[in-house]
Amino acid sequence: MPILEVKDLHKSFGKTEVLKGINFKMEKGEIIAVLGSSGSGKTTLLRCINFLETATEGSIYVDGECIFDAADKTKISASEIRRRQLNFGLVFQSFNLFPQYTALENVMLAPKLLAKERADFSQNKKKIYDEIECNARNLLTRVGLGDKMGNYPCELSGGQQQRVSISRALALEPKVLFFDEPTSALDPELTNEILKVIKDLAQKNMTMIIVTHEIEFAKNVADRIIFMNEGVVLEDGTPHDVIENPKNKRTQEFLAKML
Amino acid sequence: MDKWLSLLDGFQYNLVLFFGTIAAAVPLGLLICFCSMSKFKPLSYLSKVFVWIIRGTPLMLQLFVVLYVPGLVFNMPMKSRLTASFVAFIINYAAYFSEIYRGGIESIPKGQYEAGQVLGLTKTQVFMKIVLFQVIRRIVPPMGNEIITLVKDTSLARIIGVAEIIMSAERFSKAGVIWPLFSTGLFFLAMCGVLTLIFGALEKKMNYYKN
To answer: Fewest Cβ atoms closer than 10 Å to its Cβ: which of A3, A148, A160, B190?
Structure first.
């Protein structure tokens, strides 16, 4: 069973249709890179799947469970939407760290708040918080920020901030982790830091969808590449198929410009 | 010496008006702010018109209106001149505060809300744990400014006969002694000095990060 399935997803802003029927499936542990020029709908697709936008048509399934269906107009409670949302993690282009908290606090904030909903929270508060902190420390150490845990985001470089934000997303153990152009706000040197972290996650079999302009990276890391153009999927295949032998003329033009 | 004591008696009114207005206008301003940011359009237009009227007319005039209109129009005269001053100051300052709050809330980038949302936080948690501190940090300087203005505005209550410090000094100047009137400035200066120090310390404490 696919871990994620997107069926015929459409999204319009007013009269502009940004997504014109997106379909794809992905298996557990798979890594998909989404390529395409600006305005092709890549970011909107990610935002629709992560409940930051509401798709106008279509449906989304996680492990066979329907978590979104535009045709179903029954009101879903806010807590149910949050539960569904937690299937996913999202790493933003602009990091969006919380400036008033240290790196460690940024990673622990959401797990601590979610822990309050656990039935055994009041008896085991101390133990639960200790586990959360231990986990957060491990995550930050893993991305090479063991010595920056007490620093505020403003004291960190862009690459370090992005690594904190990846740890923050991982702390909630999402089934699928999404990256929205994670390196677009970074210079080439810092870009490599982030790409290294993503490669490391790939080796640990994290299921990921990465919207990126780094074609070389997509080729090296992704199992599959989706090429989007004007709100539709033009290519969906292995990096070899899409990058070396693109079927579509538009893909060829795009790659010619990028490589 | 008894002249100084008399001035101090008057200044008590200024202080009472000041603290009373702060205590009520700070939360009331938040309510008006939420109304004007409401997605329910009639409510948001209503509060915007309210803010426009309050900010668009002199506080001095508002004091007269609050003192006389309830008696003239609704046949419910104001119980005291001090009460009327409280009502006028609270309404006036709440309107200004609401705009400061709105500016603060709207200056928080959308990405902060979205990051909270994808991390599974409720709307309340996003506001309380992420946005609120950043808003407070941003509104401390303009609030300090406004609150210092209030210290001096309390003397406007004199216009409807509240015996605040300037009115008490005027009794002496009418009798030919002018220095008590000028000395009232020292009371305001001292009060504003203390507030400047408090807000300065608060700003410093909250500025442990940049963004």
So the answer is: B190
Q: Which two tokens stand for residue B14?
A: 């200024």
Based on DSSP, count helices (H) and strands (E) in chain B, helices before strands.
Answer: 9, 0
DSSP code of residue A15 = T
- A89 shares contact with chain B (CB less than 8 Å): yes
| Cβ <8 Å between B118 and A88 | yes
B211 occurs within a structural domain: no
| Tokens 């609050």, residue located | B66
Q: Does A153 touch chain B (CB under 8 A)?
A: yes
Rounded to a whole number of angstroms, the distance between the first and last alpha carbons of chain A is 36
Which domain covers residue B66, as residue numbers?
Answer: 2-206
Rounded average pLDDT per 10-residue block, chain B, 211 residues: 80 93 96 93 94 95 92 83 93 96 94 95 93 94 95 92 86 85 90 95 89 70
Parse chain A into domains and list their residue ranges: 4-87+174-258
B119 contacts in chain A (CB < 8 Å):
109-110, 168-169, 172
Contact B32, B50 (CB under 8 A): yes
Which among A52, A82, A109 has CB closest to B129? A109
Q: Is B60 within 8 Å of B85 (Cβ atoms)?
A: no
Closest CB to B120: pick one of A92, A100, A114. A114
Of B163, B153, B161, B158, the residue nearest B192 (C-alpha) = B153
Q: Angle A83-A88-A94 (CA atoms, 0-180°, nearest 5)?
A: 120
Domain assignment present for residue B46? The answer is yes
For A137-163, what is each residue's pLDDT tens digit? 999 999 999 999 999 999 999 999 999
CATH number at residue B52: 1.10.3720.10
| CATH class of the domain comprising A4-87+174-258 | alpha beta
